[in-house]
Amino acid sequence: MPKDSRDSRYDILFEPLQIGPKLAKNRFYQVPHCNGGGYRDPSAAAEMRRTKAEGGWGVIFTEQTEIHPSSEITPFIEQHLWEDKDIPALAAMAEAMKSHGALAGIQLAYSGINGPNLYSRDVPLAVTGGPILTFTSDPVQARTMDREDIRDLRRWFRNAFRRSQQAGFDLICLYGAHGFGIFQHFLSRATNHRADEYGGSLENRGRFLREVIEDAREVTKGELGITYRMSLHEAGTYGFSNAEVRDFIEMHGDLPDLWDLAQGTWEACSGTSRFKPEGAQEDLVRGIKALTSKPVVGVGRFTSADAMVRQIRSGILDFIGAARPSIADPFLPKKIEEARFDDIRECIGCNICVSGDMTGGISRCTQNTAFMEEWRKGWHPERARPKGPSSSVLVVGAGPTGLEAALQSARRGYQVTLAEATTVLGGRVARERTLPGLSAWGRVADYRTGQLQPLTNAEVYRDSRLTADDVLAMGAEHVAIATGASWRRDAVARLHLLPIPTDPAMPVFSPDDLMAGQGPTGGRVTVYDDDHFYMGSLMAEVLVARGCTVDFVTPATKVAEWAENTLEQAIIMRRLLELGVQVHLSKAPETIGPSEVNLGCTWSGAITTLPADAVVMVTSRIPHDGLYHDLAARQGEWEAAGLRSVKLIGDAAAPGPIAWATYAGRRYAEELDMPDDRGDTPRFRREVARLEPGPSRLP
Ligand code: ADP
Ligand code: SF4
């Protein structure tokens, strides 16, 4: 579509802007973000960035790139730039980023007090020594750097600047945000207790950053833009507070070529939509632009073009920073430019992408099923591969799995029928979007429903609960059974592998019951959570809102422990305490009586009794696979019915998070008409470590 299709209200977003010696083609700035692939999956990471270049971003950054083995954050998988042989992987990344005219940026990191060095085994070096501050309480301390160490560190940064330039990057970002980078450790009195010229006054604490930026300009001969990513606010008496941040920028307004502002901790900066609205860091950013002549970028999970324009017009930001919105829709700038607003696949703020980094897996995105599969599988967020020889597909069930399977199959060119038992499209998303704080999750259904609507080769039938007879009568060549799952009520999950004895007089409910408006409306209720993600705490919230007194019981040592991976665990615990919920850790119901729950301690086995009027089980889910098995039992009738394949997908096969469901839908559509080797070869490309030439043992 030509550029003149653009709505002139958004012109400002497409104005070019200088970052030091480099000109960004527009204001869309993909801030550094991890992807769980890093140095292990360099081609997958590079191709993911290329997709963003294609989607119109003006600036694209790598994830954190560690400059030296004396500071690395294993088990998290980021990039390495430790020696010249790391350059080619990053050069491929830079080339991909620049492929459509974006500026390519590299984020350089030295983690200091945050790097346990579990891989390199070097002694960690910090501004001020002490126990390593990370998510995992590693039993390791860092040594305080002396002046010689600081000189070494400057030299290591100089090496990284030379290598970054050699790799072809336009911009270098120095990482000093989220409590993670050495520059912040120098600036903050919480982590800098030095008595030399690098400690004490703000002037002194800023010395290292000034020196390194001078070094960067000298090494790169002023040819690269140098940006500084800084925390907007560090909490605590000695933290680098928002007031000090402002003092520092006032003192050093022209130091970097751009100020990249990120809210305090990573948890605060990348808050989920359940707890943080769009534009949540505005109060901390407002007014900073006036303190510097250099451009300012900030984030806020921006997906609305109007909100972006407001940030710029009201003088808060110069560039619109985005990590998650760029993951959910790499083509966000292009869609705004072409006024295709309904096509924007908005981030739902679930942080499943973050969990890929936190778990050492590879990141995935609930909304953009192609994320990190661009190279591994050849998937694209916008383009579909042409269809194979067969022509028709029936998808049963319009939850996230079925909606994605139908949309992607239709985009490939198959004739698609989507049948849904109820009158509402969205399945579990239609229910979960009604829970406190989860309304943005509805975008999973809204985007797909909206995209299916204009397609002439896709028909959607509501109120159509299909039986095996119906499916056989419909004549589709391929059938996807995406009929979902229901929460159990018998306590079976991880701790209890078999149902526990339960007195029939005790009312027992599941999250499905509560989401359907049933369940207790008062009294004392036990919520038993052996799921460990978001649902348990949401059930407690719903019950408190209904006037119940809630006991939250979990066999884990903390509530919602998997929510560590979405950066929500601490905030969930705080929320439960604020709501007056009684938390019972390391406990699980052993038996349920008519008016009590008998809890066993997971350590000692000691039994305590909790009075209860009702129980809500947040445990595991039972797949709805009956239709699939009915059809499988009638395979002899398939040929006459024109049926060639029946597949069970999504929650109906194996319940999981919504991102697993959308992924299953995409995979189904991608693999239509593909030869099925029953898993004898991997279904994705991967990189295998190259063996190093040389002797097997060093002398
Ligand atoms: P998933 O997460 O795998 O998409 P959901 O539970 O969200 O699973 O969605 C499953 C959908 O399938 C629900 O909307 C449900 O109403 C629908 N469904 C279940 N059985 C049938 C059936 N026999 N015919 C049509 N739709 C069905
Ligand atoms: Fe947004 Fe969730 Fe996708 Fe992350 S995984 S980009 S939070 S939709």
UniProtKB/TrEMBL annotation:
Residue ranges occupied by any NADH:flavin oxidoreductase/NADH oxidase N-terminal domain in the UniProt entry: 13-341
Ranges for region Disordered: 673-699
InterPro entries: Aldolase_TIM (IPR013785), FAD/NAD-bd_sf (IPR036188), NADH:flavin_oxidoreductase (IPR051793), OxRdtase_FMN_N (IPR001155), TMADH/DMDH/HD_second_a-b (IPR054428)
Keywords: Flavoprotein, FMN, Iron, Iron-sulfur, Metal-binding, Oxidoreductase
Residues of the TMADH/DMDH/HD second alpha/beta domain: 510-583
One Pfam assignment: Oxidored_FMN
Ranges annotated as biased composition (Basic and acidic residues): 673-690
Names of the cofactor(s): FMN; [4Fe-4S] cluster
GO molecular function: FMN binding; iron-sulfur cluster binding; metal ion binding; oxidoreductase activity
Family, similarity comment: In the N-terminal section; belongs to the NADH:flavin oxidoreductase/NADH oxidase family.
PANTHER family: 2,4-DIENOYL-COA REDUCTASE, 2,4-DIENOYL-COA REDUCTASE [(2E)-ENOYL-COA-PRODUCING]
Protein name as annotated: FAD-dependent oxidoreductase
Organism: Tabrizicola oligotrophica
Lineage start: Bacteria, Pseudomonadati, Pseudomonadota, Alphaproteobacteria, Rhodobacterales
